[in-house]
Amino acid sequence: MSGFSTWITSVWCGCIIAAVSAPAVAQDDSRLLRDRAADQRPALLVLGTAHFDNPGLDVVNTKVDDVLAPARQTEIHEVVEQLASYRPTHIAVEWPIKKQAVLDARYRDYREGKYQLGRGEEEQIGLKLAARLHLARVYAVDWNEDSPGNDEDYDWVAYGQAHGQKAQVAALLDPKGVTGIVPLGTQTIGKWLLQLNRSETLAASHRNYFDWAAIGDAEHQPGANWVGQWYAICAFSPTWCAPPLVPKIGCSSSMGRDMRTCCGSLLPSLVPSASSTSTTY
Fold first, then answer.
1. What is the model's pLDDT at position 59?
2. Are 33 and 248 in contact (CB under 8 A)?
3. Rounded CA separation 199/224 (Å)
4. In sequence order, what are the beta bridge partners of 98?
5. DSSP strand pairing (90-96 vs 15-20)
6. DSSP secondary structure letters along 32-74
7. Is the pTM of this model over 0.70?
């Protein structure tokens, strides 16, 4: 499966995964996470966001103004400082796994003052946060290769339109009807990220995927197949975060490629009234 997923992905995409290693765990420890004591499991913080650089490749695309503007840079600096207080030992970003070498080179050049960061959240937050913490590497964890089967097995748009579900497909492709959307507007980056990662926003985002999964019939379920592949990608991605940390760092649940819903919403206090939470696996 290739062509269909290249043009239709998710409501939003973008994530930063911060992992705190469990120092009591030996690198060769093969025990399952469920069999370990709480202090022997890694902790994950997943920060979900829309794409800062407006690539326009998702089902619904959110407009983000110029994050290189001085005011936005100040706001991003504040977010990075808050995230740094979590003291992650590993940082992973939505970047193609096969292009890890490119990410390594950018991070190295950035730390040496030879590279000016672009607008993407993987650089503006991911690279900045890693450099702030003097980490040796930023991990690329975006796996987006071909899934088993053919394109038609996942093409819920074509199948729905040809099998009596035109109205549902049209509604699902209408940006005005998608739930879980939070415009940036004039609020700060920190407050915006906090809104995006609130439990009620995540729940609203989840509902879209249940509607996508319903496209199909008793014989063919392209909607469920399409949603399922994003489950797989979200579950797979964190396993690449810090390979020496544990055999697997996985998600207990995820919905679609929107990594805000992968492993739950875990966010430090980006505004004074917010509480800090994290998950230990």
1. 65
2. yes
3. 24
4. none
5. antiparallel
6. -GGGS-GGGS-EEEEEE---TT----SSS------TTSHHHHH
7. yes
Q: What are the structure tokens assigned to 115, written together?
A: 């590279």
pLDDT per position as a tens digit, 216-254: 999 999 999 999 988 887 776 656 554 433 322 322 222
Strand partners, 93: 16, 140
Q: Which residues contact 244 (CB under 8 A, 6 or more apart)?
A: 27
Residue 10 CA to residue 258 CA, distance in Å, equals: 6
Nearest C-alpha neighbor of 40 from the set 51, 29, 55, 48: 29
pLDDT reported for residue 243: 41
Instruction: Write the pLDDT tens digit of every residue in 73-124.
Output: 999 999 999 999 988 888 999 899 999 999 999 999 999 999 999 999 999 9
SS3 214: coil
Position 242, amino acid: A
Q: Which two tokens stand for residue 166?
A: 């035109």
Question: Which residue stretches of the chain are H helix?
Answer: 3-7, 70-84, 100-111, 121, 128-132, 156-162, 166-172, 189-196, 199-213, 222-236
Nearest-5° angle of CA 54, CA 57, CA 63?
30
User: CB within 8 A of 17, min separation 6: which ones?
Assistant: 44, 45, 46, 47, 91, 92, 93, 141, 237, 238, 241, 259, 263
d(C-alpha 52, C-alpha 54), whole Å? 6
Domain positions in the chain are 3-280
